[in-house]
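ok trying again, last paste got cut off:
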Amino acid sequence: MRKSIYTGRYTTDNDSDLVVFLIGMRMNKRFAVHKWLPVFKAMRGMIKELYMNKEELGFLSMENYFGLRTTLMIQYWQSTEDLLAYAKGEKHLAAWKNFNQQVDNNEAVGIYHETYPVDKGKYETLYRNMPQHGLGKAIKHIPITPETISARKRLHRDIKHSGAN
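nice, full thing came through this time. structure:
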């Protein structure tokens, strides 16, 4: 499926609090596939669950990145409470329990996460000639106007937008 390119300059509304959650895995021993592959596969079911239940879970969107040894997933959530509630959910707890049983004291695979609550008005975005991406996929994606022409203006605005997607 080809993503639509939004020609021109776009930004996002920044009138809501949100949470940026980074989570990833590092294959410390690349040939220990039997140790890191189950961790990698466990994410698939959770991602499906998140997208199928976005509104009730407070999940907004995500992006994935893969390196030679390390994966990174950037997730956007409506609130810390929503993220923490998901962490206590059945699918996540089962994956976490399985991970701990398989690799808790094994250095073949590592995982990490970082959580960043961000207050409304404290984030800024710019997308030029891009498909919806990052926060532009997670929250309202809007054309840049004279009121939002610079990063400084986007960070210090107190206006409501309507219309454009």
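cool. DSSP finds six helices and seven strands in the chain. Residues 30 and 69 are 7 Å apart (CA to CA).
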